[in-house]
Structures are given as C-alpha cells and as structure tokens.
C-alpha cells in the first residue's frame, strides 16, 4: 500500500479526473440519452406486451363465458324444441284417435241407418206381398162364393145387415 501512495501524483490524478469528467459529459451528451431512450422504449414495449397479454387473457375469459352461455342457451332451446315435438306428436296421435273414433262412429251409424232402411224396405215389400196375397185369396174366395146366384144374394144381404147394425 505504501507503494501506491508513493506513486500517487497529483497531476496524473487531475488529468484522470478531467478525462473522466469529459468522458461522462460526452457520454451524457451523446450516448446516455439514446441509451435511456432505448431502455425506456424497451420498458414501454414490455408494459404494452404485458397489457396486451392481460387484455387477451380477459378477452379469452369473456369468450369462454360467452361460449358457455351460448351452449347453455342452445341446450335449453334444444330441450324446448324436443318438448314441443313430443307435444305435437302426442296431439297428432290423439287427433288421429279421435278422428278414427269419429269415423268409426259415423260408419256404425251409417250401417245402422242402412240396416234400418233395408228393414223398412223389406217390411214394405212384405206388406205389399201380404196384401197382394190377401187380395188374391179374397178374390178366389169371392169367386167361389159368388159363383152361383143364390150365394151372391145371401152375401149381399149379410153385408147390408152388417152395415145397418154399425
């Protein structure tokens, strides 16, 4: 250490100090500002990148929640559509059953009406045949009874007697 103190020179120290101050001044004037600007720009770039990343993260969370909402709405809409489809199916089945029952009832009523009309027609025809047969029988009886003159006179007198009594 003594050697260092022995070699110390005030002139050398002065010139070193002047050169050091000049170097600092030159660095401050020409290099320090661009270096600080570059460092500040780098810092701003990093801040912007972090903000962008944070915004992107928030945006992704929003999109995820929106997607979940849309998915839930789609499921709800699907369930509603399925319920409506089931209700429409059941209504169509019930309508078809009702329509089939109505058609069956109409067919039964038409069959009954047809049977009734055929029955009436058969009865009318039977009455007509019975009346024709009755007239034929009466005609034959009358021919037999009225074949001689004496029987005719007795029949006419009998009928006149019946008429007088009524």
From TrEMBL:
Pfam families on file: ATP-synt_B
Molecular function via GO: proton-transporting ATP synthase activity, rotational mechanism; proton-transporting ATPase activity, rotational mechanism
Coiled-coil stretches: 46-91
Protein's membrane topology: Single-pass membrane protein
Compartments it resides in: Cell membrane; Endomembrane system
Transmembrane segments: 12-32
Family membership noted in the UniProt record: Belongs to the ATPase B chain family.
Record note on quaternary structure: F-type ATPases have 2 components, F(1) - the catalytic core - and F(0) - the membrane proton channel. F(1) has five subunits: alpha(3), beta(3), gamma(1), delta(1), epsilon(1). F(0) has three main subunits: a(1), b(2) and c(10-14). The alpha and beta chains form an alternating ring which encloses part of the gamma chain. F(1) is attached to F(0) by a central stalk formed by the gamma and epsilon chains, while a peripheral stalk is formed by the delta and b chains.
Physiological role: Component of the F(0) channel, it forms part of the peripheral stalk, linking F(1) to F(0). The b'-subunit is a diverged and duplicated form of b found in plants and photosynthetic bacteria.
Protein name: ATP synthase subunit b
Organism of provenance: Flavobacterium dankookense
Gene name per UniProt: atpF
